[in-house]
Amino acid sequence: MIAITREVSPTLAACQLTHVERAPIDVARAGAQHDDYRAALASLGCRVVTLAAEPDFPDAVFVEDVAVVVDEVAVMTRPGAPSRRAEGARVADALSPFRPLLHIDAPGMLDGGDVLRIDRDVFVGRSQRSNDAGIAQLRTLLAPFGYTVHAVQTRDCLHLKSAVTQVAERTVLLQSAWVDRAAFDVYDVVEIDPGEPHAANVLRIGETLLMPSCFPRTHQRLEVAGLRVVVVDVSELQKAEGAVTCCSILFAAEQC
Ligand code: CIR
């Protein structure tokens, strides 16, 4: 797997926040946590590509939101937050050797954090960041490759992947306060521990799950389900409303 990442911006403290109260961010500590995150990706077999920090873009470390990469193409998004719309340029440069690039155009809005692909099914959150026009464009762009795009309403969270991620071939980890379980009823479902509302965002790399260290009860539920979990401390990135999927774009190099 290739993992595209980007160093933490020195301006991270000026990040967008929607559902999280602004709290002081230790940017140096965020950078050190990001180093650990990248080391974890490497230890799980990823070839990590690290782009230079972008001081003009506080949220640029959250690369997931600017591109959706499938086996055949990469779709450069049009992020829902206007402050994030120009973040994609360097990421597009990094992706172009691996995939043909397609684009979401105005009035479409789409954040990669709203896109959960499971095989040929692509679930897209209808959120404050992704609208029907963006979802319709993604559907049209991916249909020639056999993907079916399903719009899923989210509530009280930033992105679809704040509420649900894939943890095994036919299993998802889900926060039912933020997305209807019925939308994922063809999968086995592990519910997060209700005392850990932000725990649904985990990153699946091969058969291992990378998750924040601050959700021990959900961690335990995953292990009881027979899944292997590795943890990282991303507390400073969580203050910027980030988590583990958003700090990388993962894809298989050989499928281009
Ligand atoms: C934002 O509000 O856009 C950033 N502060 C956080 C983005 C996190 N992205 C993600 O989880 N996919």
Summarize the structure.
The chain is α/β, with parallel strands linked by helices and 256 residues long.
What does this structure look like?
The protein has about 260 residues and is of the alpha/beta class. Helices cover about 20% and strands about 25% of the residues. It is built from six helices and 15 strands. It has helices at about 25-45, 90-95, 130-140, 160-165, 215-225, 235-240; strands at about 1-5, 45-50, 65-70, 75, 100-105, 115-120, 120-125, 150-155, 165-170, 170-175, 190, 205, 210, 230, 250. A three-stranded mixed sheet has the order 2-1-15, with helices on both faces. Strands 3-4-5 form a three-stranded mixed sheet, covered by helices on one side. It has a three-stranded mixed sheet with strand order 6-7-8, covered by helices on one side. A hairpin with a 4-residue loop joins strand 3 (about 65-70) and strand 4. It is globular, with a radius of gyration of 17 Å. The two termini are about 10 Å apart. The structure holds citrulline.
Summed over residues and divided by their number, the pLDDT gives a mean of: 97
Content-based structural category: alpha/beta
Bound molecules: citrulline
Task: Please bin the fraction of helical residues.
Answer: 10-25%
User: What oligomeric assembly is this protein in?
Assistant: single chain
What is the helix/strand order?
A: EHEEEHEEEHEHEEEEEHEHE
What is the β-strand count?
Answer: 15
Biggest sheet strand line-up: 2-1-15
* First-residue to last-residue Cα separation: 12 Å
Outline = globular
What is the count of helical runs? 6
Main sheet overview:
3 strands, mixed
Q: Which strand-content bin applies to the residues?
A: 25-35%
